[in-house]
Amino acid sequence: AHTLGRGRVRLGLVTQAWGVLDNVDIQTRSALFLVGAPNLSTKVTAVQTPPFDLALRAGVWTVDLSRFDTAGDLSLRVLPVGWTGSLTLSDRVSVHLGTTWDVLHAEGAFTVEELITGLATTTGAEVDPAVLEVIDEFDGQGELVAAADLVLTRNLLGAELRFNRRDSLVLFIDAATTLQGTLRAGYRVEQADTGGTTAEIGTAARLRVPLRDAVSAIGSLSWQFSWERTRLRVGLPLPLGGNAALALPQAVSLYWVLGGPRGAAADPATD
What we know:
271 residues
């Protein structure tokens, strides 16, 4: 829940942040820009007391999946919002708890031929040209459409054990608990000879999937070195059932804290 402080800058290989005010940070992950996913988030420490801090978080990132080798025109927007609380139990031990709600909106439109070709490419099958000719006659009339509005709830746990000013042991767990929202799919037909009249035929369904039984969590255990301006974290993902690759940026990181007074920054190891 801690922030960098006014005028501080965090320069990392993945994440960069700027302390706008003593209790407000703006953050971006420049690595996502390289894959066409612009993003920006902010953190505001709303409660600041000696043993306990509480921060609110919000952000946005988007990605146009059609720039990759996928069928059709697909886009994804994610709005992560949540809170984090940090409790200092002693000079050596602190814990961090929080909840994040990832509000996802995905939509796309693709032709039947694109869908068939995409499936064939994925499965390695060959599509008979005669089949594509038949599809093309039907395909000119419209396109398949799909959209999803989902909320993924994640609970966060972090703990830090400090041995001295430089060395600390850091535990981080990010566990998805619930996925809920609405799915829509159908077929869109546009008639040019009737002035561009558009009709959509399809169905929608609401879903709520508890994820507690199917363990969907990532975690890491790392050793962190905190020098005057440099932070180096070296560790390994924990076998919690989720995709271990997603935990690598948390388990291993390197960043520099610039600006402000010299000495160790107040940013938490579990940030």
